[in-house]
Amino acid sequence: MKKKMHTLFIATAMVCTTAYAESVTTFNVDEDKTTLLLPKLEVFYRGSSMGTFKAEMELISDNPTYDFRVTSSSPLSMTLSNEEIVRRFLGELLSEGNLEVAEEILSPEVVIHTLDSFTPDFGNGIEAMKQVVNFYREAFSDFQMTIDALIVTGDKAIVRFTLSGKHTGDLPNFPATGATISADGMETYSIVNGKIVAFWHVLDTFGVRTILTTASPPESDEPPRCISHHGKVCP
Question: How confident is the model at residue 140 (pLDDT cuts 50, 70, 90)?
């Protein structure tokens, strides 16, 4: 049986949103008060779901339209914005290494495009993405992906980032040097229904290779150096 849906228009701080409610119950607390109980209220903004809530609303006017104010609400589920999804990807998944986040923000069939000669091709899917995370975090201790710029438009997002860390793990053709690196990169994301379905990763591999080639290996008497992607010693 198809459930009857009730459409509500909500104005908050001059922003108008649309919400759809199921199984609306009306009850009178006393003779002067009418309250709506909304066991499931899904709120949309500009066509995107912002989350599902349980709410109560009190009737404050019925002329010329029925106007209510929210007296209580609690989230049943929240939908992250595309910006928040990207920030979780770079922060919690990559920088912190929390692999459980992958299932929350990635599509099971996420397509991974690594457009540089440094990052290995592990294929597609969540497990492949976890391998990418482990690759960087095992090669670089104190690994961080710092967002320098983030632009989101519709279902697309683009990030300019700085990758940093200490090279304490072996890489193909580059045994651990102990050097601290800093390199630029860019990533582009395609996001559908709160999940990253594809992303494109580009890293300044020339800069990274310059750093690793120039850096002294740990067994050298010379202490490890921090070298930027421009080939200059960090301050």
Answer: very high
Question: Is 198:217 a contact under the CB 8 Å cutoff?
Answer: no
Distance separating alpha carbons of residues 113 and 110, to the nearest angstrom: 10
Residue that terminates a domain, selected from 47, 78, 109: 78
Give the per-residue SS3 of 128-148.
HHHHHHHHHHHHEEEEEEEEE
Phi, psi of 212 (to 5 degrees): -70, -35
Other beta carbons within 10 angstroms of residue 127's beta carbon come to 12
For residue 74, the enclosing domain spans 5-78
Inside any domain, residue 147: yes
> Could you report the per-residue pLDDT of 11-57, keeping only the tens digit for each?
444 344 555 555 555 555 556 677 777 777 766 655 656 667 777 87
| Closest CA relative to residue 49, chosen from 20, 6, 71 | 20
235 CB-near residues (< 8 Å, 6+ apart)? none
Q: Are residues 104 and 201 in the same domain?
A: yes
Indicate if 60 and 101 belong to the same structural domain: no
Q: Are residues 126 and 197 in the same domain?
A: yes
In a domain, 233, yes or no: no
- At 138 the pLDDT is 93
Quote the tokens at residue 72: 């209580």
Largest CA distance in the chain: 87
Instruction: Report d(CA 212, CA 215) in Å as an integer.
Output: 5
Last residue of a domain, one of 27, 49, 78: 78
Q: Is 152 in the same domain as 167? A: yes
